[in-house]
Amino acid sequence: MRNRWCILAILFVVRLTIAFQFQSVAAVAPLLQQTFGVGLADIGILIGLYFTPGIVLALPGGAIGRKLGDKSTTIAALLLMTAGSLVIAATDIWGLQMAGRLASGAGGVLLTVQLTKMGADWFAGREIATAMAIFVNSWPAGVAISLLVLPAIGTAYGAGAVFLTTGALSAIGIVLILFYQPPPATTASAAGSGRLDPLALLAVIVAGTIWGLYNVGFAMIFSFGPSLLVERGWSIAAAGSAISLVMWLSVISVPSGGFLADRTKHPFVLAIAASLVVAGLLAWLTRSDAVIAILVLGGLIGGLPAGPIMSLAARVLAPQTRAIGMGVFYTLFYAAMMLGPAVAGRLAKSAGTAAVALDLGALAVLACPPLMWLFERIVSVRDRRTQS
To answer: Domain Major facilitator superfamily (MFS) profile spans what residues (predicted)?
Structure first.
C-alpha cells in the first residue's frame, strides 16, 4: 500500500485505540469509585498513570523505533496495551489495576511516538498541518466513542467488560498495522545523523510543552466533566453522552483547523485565538447551567489548534532526526499529561468538587499563546543562522 491517504487512514484507526483505552477510566469513573471505594484523587492518579511511562519511554521510544523498525515497534506496543487491559479486567485489586494501567500506558507511549513519526514521514513538506490534524483527530474520535460505548457496557456488565473491550480493540490494531508500508524516501535517509542542533532541540521542547499544556486543559473536559455533571445530578450514561459532544464536534473542528492553517498560512493566529476562547469556555462550564451550549462551542473551537500545534515539531525536524525529535516532543507531552490529572484530582478532592479541575485546565490553556510566540522566535533565529 503506497497511497499516503490510505496509510493515514490506517494510522488514524490504530491511534484511535490509544484514546479509547485512555478514556476507559474516566468514562466509568463513578462506577470505579463505587466498585473499589476510591475517591476523585485516586481516579485522577489512575487516569494520569497512563501517561507516566511517557516520561521515561518517549525519548528512548524514538530510538527503539529507529532500531527495530516501524512495524515491529508498533506491534510490540499494541501487545503491551492488550496485556494491560487484560490485567485490569481480570483483577479486583486496586494495586493491580494500577499495574495494568502502567503496562497499557507503556504500550500507548511507544505507539504514539512511532505513529506520529510514521505520519510525518509520509507528509513532511506537503499538507503537513492537514495530515497531522486528521491524525490527531483519532484522539477525540476514540474518546467520543468510548464515552458513548463504555458507560453502557460498564453499567450492564461491570468494569471488567469495559477493559476487555479496550483490549479487543488493541488486538484489532495489530491486524491493521500489518498493512502499513514506509515511504521510499525514509529508507535512504534513516542512516543519517540523528543529532538535533541546539535551537531545533529548544524549539521541539517548547512545542512539546505547548502540546502538553493544551491537552491538559482539553483533557479536563472529558476526564472530570462526567464527574462534574454527576455532581449536578446527571446519570453516569447521560453525563458521558453530554461530554462526548465535545469530542464528536472535535472530529469536525480538528481537520478544519489543519485545513485553515495550510490555506491561510497563519496557523498561529488561529491557534492563539482558539486557545483563548477554549480557556474561557472551561472557566464558564463550571459556573453556568448552559452545559450543552458550552460543550458544543468547546467542540467546535477546541479542535482548531490541534493541527497547527502538532505540525510545529515537523517544521524543525529532518527525516534523520524525526524519531528522536518526536521522542523529546512526547516526553514533555507525557510529563504534562501525567501531572495534570493527578494534580487536578488532588485539588478536586480538597475542594470537594470536580469544578476545580476544569479551572486548572483553563489556566493550562492560557499558558499556550505566549509559548507559541516563543516558538516562533526560536525558529526565526534558527532560520537566520542557517541562511547566514
So the answer is: 7-379
